[in-house]
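[job 0417] fold request received: Nucleotide-diphospho-sugar transferase domain-containing protein
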Amino acid sequence: MLRLFKRHIALSIFILTLFLLYFSFSSIHEDSDMEYLYKVPYPVLFRNLSSKDSIASDKIAILIVLSEGVKRDYYKIPIDSVECYAKAHGYQFILTDDKGYGCDYLKEKYFRRHCVVTKILPKYEAVLHIDADIGVVNPNRKLQELLDENIDITFYDRHFSPEIALGSYLAKNTSYAMEIIKDFSEYERKLPNSFHGTDNGALHIFLAEKLFPYNLNELELCRRAWRNSQNVADQFAYTLCIRTLFGANTDFGKIRILRKGTGHVRDDWLTSGIWSPYHDFMLHGWKMDQLGKTPSRPLKAEPMKQTVWYNPFIGTFDMDQCGFGNTTWHHDPRLIGTREDVEHCLRKHEMKIAIKKMKYLGRFGDDIIEDQDSEYLYGVPYPIMRNSNNESWITSENIAIVIVLSESVKRDYYEIAIDSVECYAKAHGYQFILTHDNVWGCDYLKDKFFRRHCVISKILPKYEAVLHLDADIGVVNQKRKLQEYMDPQFDIIFHDRHFSPEIGMASYIVRNTQYGLDLITEFSNYEKKLPEGSFHGTDNGAIHMFLAEKLFPDNSIELELCRRAWKNSQNVADQFAYTSCIRTLFGANMDFGKVRILRKGTGYVRDDWLTGGIWSPDRDFMLHGLKTDHLKKVPNGPLRVSPMSQTSWYSPFEGDFDIKRCVLGNTTWNHNSRLIGTREDVEYGLRKHEMKIAVKKVKYMSRLYNFVVYSSTYLQYSLRMLRIH
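[job 0417] inference complete; emitting structure tokens
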């Protein structure tokens, strides 16, 4: 009886726990732990209007394109506000419909408006395209604040979804902008037979194809999600898939995408119509048939229904009074709030969307599979990342190759790998340093993986550059040079791991600059920030959060969510979910200021087991995983390029290295010809594995929701109680 009672109590605790977890899911945006994030101000992106590249106002047009039959009265207040604003600043105001511009061949009204933009843009130096339901609320802002001499088209993020908004964009009259908008207007023919989101859905895959042509696997997976989309949630899942390619960056060549909270337009309903002169410029969602009466009760900045808005003005616009220089407008003071209140509300909603993004990914994580349609992707060669014209900018004797062993670890444990590296260094005149981590004053660090980076920081000042290598990395192609991978623009170069979403820490190239030295020194001390009680991945897990904090300090909300995933990680799959979370901030980009991360298939190191030990002199340089106790005899039968056990490898060499014969200029090595394959075969195998990882990455991401919404403490406790009783 007592046992039955205990089981009843345990079951009750478990049910109560589930209820608490459900409550956590529905109210995460109220988490007091997040409150500090909501108070972080958005960066102000005002530009110096005296800049020499500024465009005169009369050379800028504000364009509103209506569909045939739509009257101005449908959007009277927003259109009046835009016209009055244009007159106040001397911009050209154009209100037109989509007929008469030769765009009738397009069936979709949403694509026709972009076609119209291409017809009007050549007459001006820049055009701001806006939807008719966007109104100007702050007449003191100027469009020139958005212009930049390096950017031809400026978009902005939608605040309440993962989308890039198409309600407005600013385009300069350049051949690049004209080509982009023209090509996009004709993208209508590529719309899938699905819930595709018309032009707003199409913009994402269109831009991704233009900006990330080498990310074929990810593009194909996102394209499948678009084809299979059946509703709004599926559509958001697809757009999020694409946005993982863009990452946290705002600039992509000549295209800029302003982040949430920094764009020139946002949705009015997000703050119940309350706006701030110190934050806002234009508001979206002003349809006349949705105009509500401003309540007499006190209003606060919080989301309301998307189909209601309040007029921020007192009275109507008198166009005769809208003259040049007149920016004295009559606003309803009840709808004017402080920057702090407005941005607190926007940050809070941004957190809500950041969490929803993880739920969206989970919608198609289990449905994406490899299929025969992917076969064409496997034959696409990887781009070659060699900088052969830079080979002499740092001379070989000023570059050190450093291998750091833990105390008591002997060279014999990695004999073939280390011999190959030393022989390679001697052949090209690099300095070869094999050392232990207990002789450099780094003993204060407990983790051996962090100690090795501390050692690098001690050696780096003596050379112009250092290549850090794990001891199980061997050189297989002795004819390649380190300078091929170096670039004067970058102080540190990492590489992507091919079999996971991780940045590899087994090797990196760092230059002796203040930035490079500071980065390595600071990272070696990051050991103290490892989360207790989690499967954190030591230095390999830490590098992701460390770099993200350095490179994306303004993305505080995404950083906090990924940090929670790291804290709650319990196994390898959880760890990969966390690293996938961080990699969404990096996106498909490889260059981040003075940091470069070489993409899969383009780095100087890859894992040997991925191709069954077969390598190609036309693409490979170094191979990872060459531990002596994992060495196997090369099989007698035919070998083919396919993954094998991660704990096995075959020696790519015939016989042992004679270090005495490893002298400057001697790059004649004896390779086992049976392990030499063609570039095509090797890259086919790597591409195929890359697709497998791209699919897994989506599945890893779908795990994140549970991590970031709540700690698993309650659930673990209740399960423990059930086991006890």
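[job 0417] notes: The CA atoms of residues 496 and 503 lie 5 Å apart. The first helix runs from residue 2 to 26.
[job 0417] exit 0
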